[in-house]
Design goal:
The structure is a homodimer.
Chain A (H helix, E strand, L loop, with lengths): L9 H22 L4 H10 L18 H12 L8 H22 L3 E2 L2 E2 L1 H5 L1 H20 L4 H28 L6 H26 L4 H28 L2 H4 L5 H4 L5 H8 L3 H14 L3 H5 L3 H13 L2 H18 L10 H14 L3
Antiparallel strand pairs in A: 1-2
Helix pairs in contact in A: 1-3, 1-4, 1-17, 2-6, 3-4, 3-8, 3-17, 4-6, 4-7, 4-8, 7-8, 8-9, 9-16, 9-17, 12-15, 12-16, 13-15, 16-17
């Protein structure tokens, strides 16, 4: 065992690094096409400059999507470089959705920085999100081949699912009860669809047939659901030093995430006590809620765990991970690509942030 | 002269009617793909249902864009029907931008009805706008040909210009002075780009080469600028009974529209008095401004006219109309299509609402 890499994630980390290295310059070139005021807002959002326009080196995220798009091209027998426009387009769509979602959700922080609507106002968050979305479609279609047109069509369909997922997420906030199936459907749209698209898009650009692209999308969809299950676990029990979020982050936001809905759906005294607390919580204003001390959130987290919400979600992450890898089983791919897709999937379910 | 049609717009009105008749069912079919909560919001926006979900027959707008998209297909020698996906895609993009712009601008009314953000909240205006944009890309790419991919690329480029135009419009609100050239550039992006796209998209789908598509886009771009110049005139001097807007509508919103910037740019006492008034106006809050009585707006309108802003804009509409038609001059088009494009252009500069 390598002590610097206790979970053996060296391969996955190298793939993420390659994705960043190849996609980042192309992403900057694409964003450079935006006109000045919007360009600055976009550069702030991506962490390239601070609120005063000074260059920064902010955390640019895990970059799972670009890594996937490049591997996807290799799965079709093309070079990783062939997947770059796909990686860029998917990143643009992802960031369009972050800009709009942060505004709709009223989230003031993302990756330890003030969100765009907070710094530059709501109109800029809407405009720049719209511009990134249009840019994504332009970038992918510039290939000018029948394959890039197919890729663009899949990208547009995934984008619409992303919007569906956000609409469901918002609707759930106003509902007292959300089922596990509904939560999974929402997460499949909000997270699964774009990871699916990333996993298929490189192959489509590389000329793969629909069968290979569909199988890769299935892998990406379930990888997205595994990713989201882990995210939901980290949102409650994650180490703030690693995640950069507050303790019990999702509980503070009263998010009906997987561990919560699974616990509520369980039977027994813990589920009943939890449900009673959450029902009372729902009647509070956000200010009253923010006055809660740590112990209140710790109580809810303990009840979720006692009712089985934590272990169910851990199990669900493993199930989705398994289903993701099963989708690759019968595929004809160049040697090594399957191992790399597996390494990436393993990383997603074991990450700590 | 036909007394029922004093301006001889029968041909143009028939083209608009045909555009509506062919595009409306396809538009409804496309919008029907949205999931229930967003579908209702979209149906409200399009005027198909009221705020309580009851079917209505609201004014669906002039529908110049669909009419253009169909004529565009005919210009390439295809049937009008070939342009329908283009008409639908352009209408979806247009309405995506209306949903977002109304929210950013805080506009509470559109076509005599409360705007979506006012009825369904800001998040729905953002979400449904995003969904319509994604749907537009899906609809146009469904053709699955090399031509529809080219059409989608032009649509994405036009959409980004639309966003640029809105960004400029918002930036101008916070500036004391806007030049005529800047105003024309903004209007070229905000109105010209999508009319250009509508005028070219049918031809592209129909298999036209880039030369014909570009010429049709040039026609559409200048038609858009003529359209906007007329809109800017109606925004100040339009008959409220015809336009459905308040008297001096654009002046109430302190819009730096063409007649205003042209008047301010002129020399002489009227321009100077106008500039002094507008500079003082800019320091007022919106509430103080709304307390103005009719005479205050009438004074500003009279000064704009005296400084030559009205006649300059009328002249500009004629110039753009002329440039639009000139773009058609050397084109090889089926007999009758040129006459119809001309009739539509004539209608645009003579309309009263």
């Amino acid at each position: 065992m390598n002590p610097a890499d206790p979970h053996g994630h060296g391969a996955a980390l190298a793939l993420l690094e390659r994705g960043r290295a190849l996609a980042a310059p192309a992403l900057r070139t694409a964003v450079d096409r935006l006109a000045p005021p919007m360009h600055n807002v976009a550069a702030y959002h991506f962490g390239w400059i601070d609120a005063h326009g000074r260059p920064t080196e902010a955390d640019s995220g895990k970059a799972v999507r670009p890594a996937l798009a490049l591997l996807s091209a290799e799965a079709a027998g093309a070079g990783a470089e062939a997947g770059v426009p796909g990686a860029v387009a998917v990143e643009l769509v992802h960031n369009f959705s972050l800009l709009h979602d942060d505004l709709m959700d009223g989230d003031e922080q993302r990756r330890h920085r003030d969100t765009v609507w907070k710094v530059h106002g709501p109109a800029q968050a809407i405009l720049v999100g719209d511009a990134l979305f249009a840019l994504a479609v332009e970038v992918i279609l510039e290939g000018g081949t029948e394959h890039t047109a197919r890729a663009a069509r899949r990208l547009a369909a995934a984008s619409r699912k992303l919007v569906d997922g956000q609409a469901q997420d918002i609707a759930f906030e106003h509902r007292e009860r959300v089922s596990v199936a509904e939560c999974l459907e929402m997460e499949g749209n909000k997270t699964g669809a774009l990871l699916a698209c990333a996993a298929g898009i490189g192959a489509v650009i590389g000329g793969a047939d629909d069968a290979l692209a569909d199988a890769l999308e299935t892998y990406g969809h379930h990888l997205g659901l595994a990713f989201q299950a882990v995210d939901d676990l980290l949102g409650i029990w994650g180490d703030p030093a690693a995640t950069g979020k507050l303790t019990w982050s999702d509980l503070r936001q009263r998010k009906k995430s997987l561990p919560v809905v699974a616990a509520v759906a369980a039977e027994g005294p813990a589920a009943e006590r939890l449900t009673a607390l959450l029902t009372a919580d729902a009647k509070k204003t956000q200010e009253e809620f923010e006055d809660f001390d740590e112990a209140e959130f710790a109580t809810r987290a303990a009840l979720i765990e006692e009712a089985g919400g934590r272990s169910w979600t851990e199990e669900e992450a493993r199930r989705q991970h398994h289903t993701a890898l099963a989708a690759l089983d019968s595929l004809d791919m160049p040697a090594g690509v399957r191992e790399q897709l597996t390494a990436l999937a393993d990383f997603v379910v074991v990450r700590r942030k």
